[in-house]
Amino acid sequence: MLQTTGAFKVRGAFNKMLLLTDSERKFGVVAVSGGNHAQAVAYAARELDLRSLILMPEFTPINYLEATRAFGAEVVLTRSLAEAFRQVAAYEAEGLTYIHPFDDPLVIAGQGTIGLEIFEDLPQVTDVVLSIGGGGLVGGVGTGLKALKPNTRIWGTETAGADSMAQALTKGEVVELAAVTSIARTLGAPAVSKTTLALAQQHLEQVVVVTDAEAVDALFTLLHDCKVLTEPAASCTLAAVDKLQGEFSPDSHVVLVLCGGNFALDDLCQWRADVLPPKMRVQPCLAN
Q1: Is 29 helix (H, G, I), strand (E, B) or coil?
Q2: Edge-to-edge strands of the sheet including 127-131?
Q3: Do 260 and 36 contact (CB within 8 A), yes or no?
Q4: What is the chain's Cα-based Rg?
Q5: 125-179: pLDDT as tens digits
Q6: pLDDT of 254-287, one tens digit each?
Q7: C-alpha dihedral sign at 87, 159, 236, 113
Q8: What stretch of H or E contains 156?
Q9: How do 52-57 and 29-32 pair as beta strands?
Q10: Which helix (H) or strand (E) segment is 55 a member of?
Q11: Coil, strand, or helix at residue 7?
Q12: CB–CB of 285/229 below 8 Å?
C-alpha cells in the first residue's frame, strides 16, 4: 500500500509491460479497472513511455478517475464493468496489448514478488494472510513463497458480497456473482478465473469471509494502533486473523499483507456512520 499508486498492483503491471516486444510497445496497452489496477497500468505505462488506455465504469469513484488521468492514461468510461470488458477486443484489434487485472501469468508472477520479499525479511514465516479480489495476489504469493518454504500456510480473505473465490472453492468451479455488494470495491471481481482458482486450490488453507463492518472495524484498529490507513479490502486481513486465532500458536510468525490504501477520504466517516454498528464505534473519527 506504500507503493507510488497506493497498492500492490504496480508489480504485475510492470512485470507484464517490461516483457512487451518492440512491436507491442509501439501500440501501447489497454486495461479494464474501476480501482487500483487502473492506476498501476497508467503509472507503469508512463514510466515506460507507453500509451495507456483504461476502460472504467462510469460509477468509478472520482478519486480513482482523477488519479488514473494524472498518471497520463486515456480514460474511456463505460456503462458497466461488463461493458468495459466487452470493449477490450476492439482495442486489441487496433494493436494494444491487454493487461488483465489478474488472469495473466506475468501479472500473477509480478504480484508474487511480495512472497519473495516476505521470505527475505522473515524466513521464519509460518502463515501469510492475503485479500482476494480476482486471485492474482494470493496465487502469485502462494506460488512464490511455497517454492521457497513449502510448509508456509497461505490464508485468503474476502468480504461478504465480494466472495467470488470462496464460492468458487465451495463449488469447485468458477462462480460469477450476480452483483458485488461489498463496500470493498477493489475486491469486486465478479468472478475469479480458472487459473487463479486452480492456484487457490493448490496453495490455500482456507478463505475466511468477513463482513463489511468487521473490515471497517479492523481499518480503524489499524489506524488507531498502527497509524496506518488502509482500504477495507486490505484491513479485512486483520478481521480474518481475529477469526483464525485458534489456528496460531505462540511460535507462529503471521504476516498480514496490507495490499492497498486507496479510497475517497469522505468515505471514512461515512463507513463509520453507515457500516459500523454502535457497539463497534470505539474510536473517534479523525475527520470530525
Answers
A1: strand
A2: 204-210, 153-159, 127-131, 254-256
A3: yes
A4: 18
A5: 999 999 999 999 999 999 999 999 999 999 999 999 999 999 999 999 999 999 8
A6: 999 999 998 877 788 788 778 877 666 555 444 4
A7: negative
A8: strand 153-159
A9: parallel
A10: strand 52-57
A11: strand
A12: no
Of 2, 59, 83, 11, nearest to 185 by C-alpha is 59
Claim: this prediction has a pTM higher than 0.70: yes
The sign one gets for the Cα dihedral 138, 189, 70, 266 is: negative
Q: How far apart are CA 192 and CA 204, in angstroms?
A: 14
Q: Quote the cell numbers at residue 226.
A: 498502527
Which residues on adjacent β-strands are paired with residue 209? 158
Instruction: Render pLDDT for 125-140 as a digit per residue (tens, 0 to 9).
Output: 999 999 999 999 999 9
Helices (H), the chain: 10-18, 22-27, 36-47, 62-70, 81-93, 105-121, 136-148, 164-171, 194-203, 212-226, 232-243, 266-274
- Sign, CA dihedral 161-6-113-29, equals positive
Q: Which domains does the chain have, with CATH numbers?
A: 10-98 (3.40.50.1100), 105-280 (3.40.50.1100)
Beta-bridge mates of residue 88? none
User: Using CA atoms, how far apart are residues 107 and 51, in angstroms rounded to an integer?
Assistant: 18
Half-sphere exposure of 273 (CA within 13 A, CB side): 9
Contact 111, 128 (CB under 8 A): no
